[in-house]
Amino acid sequence: MNERKHVIILGGGITGLAAAFYVQKYAKEEGKAVTFTVIEASNRLGGKIDTINEDGFVLERGPDSYLARKTVMTELVKDVGLGDDLVSNETGQAYILHNMRLHPIPEGAVMGIPTKVMPFATTPLFSVAGKARAGLDLVLPKRKNAEQDISVGHFFRRRLGDEVVDRLIEPLLSGIYAGRIDRLSLQSTFPQFVETEKKHRSLILGMKKTQPKQEKTPISKKKKGAFLTLKGGLSSFIEALSKAVPEENIKTGVSVRAVERLEDGAYSVIMEDGSVMTGDHVIVTTPYPITKKLFGGTLFPAGFHDTKPTSVATVAMSFNEEDVNFSLDGTGFVIAKSEKTSITACTWTSRKWPHTTPKGKVVLRCYVGRAEDQDIVHQSDEVILEKVLDDLKKIMGVDSRPEFYHVSRMIDSMPQYEVGHKEQVKKLRTAFQNELPGVRLAGAPYDGVGLPDCVNSAKVAVDSLFSK
Ligand code: FAD
Hints:
By secondary structure, this protein is of the alpha+beta class. 33% of the residues lie in helices and 23% in strands.
């Protein structure tokens, strides 16, 4: 009898490739006869990860870095031999655009929660009434039904007031989730604040207590950034990850149409071209709307991911240094929703990530595409560029045109984690466990959108298939 198990992995983004790596690792370490095949629809691996390397520039079309404290990704980067290529971001002041002026994010604000009195009391970003309202957090009781999920917006509005939410917290978070803060699930995105309120009642006092004491950094030594990326861009990680497994185990340019369970408990994966592959297990990492089609709708809880994923576009532009007369020090800015701009954020890439830019050049990377205004993403490159340049002129006084630019669209790319998300994921996994016990769902739609979350979900999926 052939004991060899075959795992079919759908999708060759970071989650799918990480899953392949972990299956191979398990087979080697445990001496098990397990093989795998990754099936990727496009001709390129990496999914949302897509780096442009040209003329000494390293420009990202999608994600540009990951949170260093989520170490599962760093471990995998080291496992594939790229540990020496890891780079931390340069730290520096970040700004918020409000009333068309750039305001420094008040010192000590942690995810927008003030932990230092003076910078918060003196910032012109909030009115006196707004500051007083935020201070109510110190005396307000905790939420009674803390176990029940609530939106990030409602949670913070209750504790700190609308002004702090609209002018600071929302712009900071929308860069990560590109969604509506008043629908975004607190439990699935920032469960630590539920705990802070439970334990300390006041978020301000809780954050003050739990923030690590800031060690005085010697002037000669710069503070380390909270993010990491790779010298050659994130695509270099995808390349190393794909090379860590045999080439013949990855099929690109092959689109999956359906997955069916066979009578003997195995699975049949049917491709768009009619060909069929059978496997004992399937790890599914495709975007949610596609996953739903692959299995037919019945297993999927009503209402789950009903809100369309948001589309965003980024515009990376290179200027000659002497053409950008801009005196503020720092790494970029985010924008309050009330502002009438097309851009939602701008990273001063050459400052935040100096390795990405040749000497004498300045790279700015702007984001467009709010959840409420998706039209701009579908405009032509030229139209998007003009709108971005118009905003940069008003905000930063940048009056020149870029030497070159890249507009990158990521359509329906940001899954929306709405209130109740965690509960729905649980329901979905239970339904799969009952009906399709050899199938695992992993990747951005379920347990976190960050790159380390995706890597972790791949690891958990593989572990759960083989830990018996
Ligand atoms: P994907 O990358 O979407 O991979 C899924 C794969 O499935 C794709 O390659 C697709 O082609 C394939 N596929 C689809 N249909 C089929 C089919 N029928 N058959 C076979 N294959 C199929 N995260 C961070 O941590 N840091 C950041 O700085 C950051 N910035 C971001 C910026 C942008 C603009 C975006 C869009 C996301 C950002 N994220 C960031 C989030 C992060 O990039 C994603 O959550 C992550 O890359 C998702 O990886 P994945 O493998 O789960 O899915």
